[in-house]
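Quick review question:
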């Protein structure tokens, strides 16, 4: 009877060929030993990269560590641009309201933020008034003489603000393997204490974390990335999978969602095939490492970047939201990378949702100190917008 049953049980249909078969995901699933061989010499670093824990990798060696460095450098640059945008909008509101607190160091940090983003810091340096901390006044007088992030300030005593500025330049030039961290300045005005994050920190990290060579071929270069192979990444990878990644000329979230649905159909079909044909060890890796959700998230984030570059923030927002792991929407993990929250913050800010941008930045700032400045200034922006819209309310 058993032999008769076996003879009558149809064999599973053959696997449908797909570009995913030869991708890094396909290689892991079909040949699990290749994955083990790739990570065995540097397992902890690969585990951290898979979990999107990039913050501790800048002193480590190896492919996983160098890729974590590059990802964190990219994150720092994203955060720097968000912070610059936050400062630009906040400064405009302060100018309109004309109510900068007397004696505050705010103009000094506004000037630094403008200097880093290519603006003119002089108007804000000139707002540093005689009630400010003497070291803030001294730093402002010194910087206004040569407003450049590529030139050290003249040594003036033991001014920590000047020393911090020069230390950033030393780190960027490679003259030092450390850079300033922590609170840049603290003040107490009218019984209100404020601590200032350093607007130069993300710009410094974006420079110093890119110095290590990255792997360019094989699984060490591709593992957990948005690529199918060395030359097919992001939108090109989506197209290779048979889904048109064109966002169109209009900032339409519906078009973005249509791309998501098309990509999901392809990825779901391939996953079903693997559950029938892949070796047991490969199927286990596919599930335990969340390989398809991870690849999907990376692909959609790459497309969200394209949407932002095309000035389509509503599409970028739809793509970033669709790629989130909804089981943990406010936590960094294997699917939700730090880049997720940076893209969400940027898209929310550009669509006028400042409070939502702040929510995303708070997730980043909890793990990455370079996001503290963006979190701080976007918080100020949210409060100022709330005051303008709702009297004394602080809600945006």
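Suggested answer, residue by residue:
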């Amino acid at each position: 009877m058993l032999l008769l049953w076996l003879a009558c049980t149809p064999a599973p249909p053959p696997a449908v060929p797909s570009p995913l078969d030869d991708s890094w995901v396909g290689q892991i699933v079909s040949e699990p030993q290749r994955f083990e061989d790739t990570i065995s010499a540097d397992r902890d670093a690969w585990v951290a990269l898979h979990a999107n824990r990039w913050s501790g990798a800048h002193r480590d060696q190896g492919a996983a560590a160098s890729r974590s460095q590059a990802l964190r450098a990219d994150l720092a640059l994203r955060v720097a641009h968000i912070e610059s945008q936050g400062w630009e909008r906040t400064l405009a509101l302060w100018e309109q309201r004309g109510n900068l607190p007397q004696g505050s160091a705010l103009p000094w940090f506004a000037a630094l933020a403008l200097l880093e983003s290519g603006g003119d810091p002089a108007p804000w340096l000139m707002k540093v008034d005689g009630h400010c901390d003497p070291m803030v006044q001294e730093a402002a007088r010194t910087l206004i003489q040569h407003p450049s992030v590529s030139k050290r300030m003249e040594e003036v005593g033991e001014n920590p603000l000047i020393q911090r500025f020069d230390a950033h330049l030393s780190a960027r030039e490679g003259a030092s393997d450390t850079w300033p961290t922590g609170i840049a300045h603290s003040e107490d005005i009218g019984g209100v204490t404020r601590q200032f994050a350093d607007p130069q920190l993300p710009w410094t990290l974006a420079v110093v974390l890119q110095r290590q060579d990255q792997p360019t071929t094989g699984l060490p270069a591709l593992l957990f990335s948005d690529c199918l192979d060395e030359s097919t990444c992001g939108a090109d990878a989506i197209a290779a999978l048979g889904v048109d990644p064109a966002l169109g000329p209009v900032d339409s979230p519906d078009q973005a969602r249509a791309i998501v649905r098309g990509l999901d159909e392809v990825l779901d079909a391939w996953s079903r095939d693997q559950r029938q044909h892949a070796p047991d060890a490969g199927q286990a890796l596919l599930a335990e490492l969340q390989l398809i959700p991870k690849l999907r998230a990376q692909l959609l984030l790459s497309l969200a970047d394209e949407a932002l570059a095309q000035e389509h923030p509503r599409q970028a927002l739809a793509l970033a939201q669709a790629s989130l792991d909804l089981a943990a929407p406010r936590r960094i993990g294997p699917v939700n990378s730090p880049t997720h929250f940076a893209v969400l913050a940027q898209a929310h800010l550009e669509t006028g949702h400042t409070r939502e941008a702040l929510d995303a930045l708070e997730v980043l700032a909890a793990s990455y100190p370079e996001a503290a400045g963006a979190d701080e200034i976007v918080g100020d922006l949210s409060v100022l917008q709330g005051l303008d819209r709702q009297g004394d309310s602080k809600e945006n």
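Why it works: Residues 20 and 26 are 6 Å apart (CA to CA). Residues 2-7, 391-396 have pLDDT under 50 and may be disordered.
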